[in-house]
Design a protein that fits this description.
2 helices; globular; 48% strand; mainly beta; pyruvate; 107 residues
Length: 107
């Protein structure tokens, strides 16, 4: 049996910008993406610690080294710059993989 398990979590990231008139997504610094093992266009869940919003979107690579977390398109209405967010990535694992799995938490 396969289960959907937490693969990586970017904890307490600060939203650096919100651009409403843009394709919907979240831009994340490429250095942080690599450290988390997340990929461009991967689906992620996002929780906003400041207003309680939760939403699902996909990743687009942001400027390497910028430390930026930018909400684009409709997701820009879910936060304001300065809000603290948590970004969750999941993976399907079989029973044999689960016991050895440790979520990445690079941030």
């Amino acid at each position: 049996m396969f289960r959907c398990m937490l693969k990586a979590k970017i904890h307490m990231a600060t939203v650096t910008d919100c651009i409403l008139r843009y394709e919907g997504s979240i831009s994340i610094d490429e250095d942080i993406l690599e450290a988390a093992g997340m990929l461009p266009y991967e689906q992620v869940h996002v929780s906003n610690l400041d207003n309680g919003e939760r939403f699902t979107t996909y990743i687009i690579p942001g400027e390497r080294g910028s430390r930026g977390f930018m909400l684009n398109g409709p997701t820009a209405r879910k936060a304001i710059p300065g809000d603290r967010i948590i970004i969750f990535s999941y993976s399907w694992m079989d029973e044999d993989e689960i016991s050895a799995a440790v979520p990445r938490r690079p941030y």
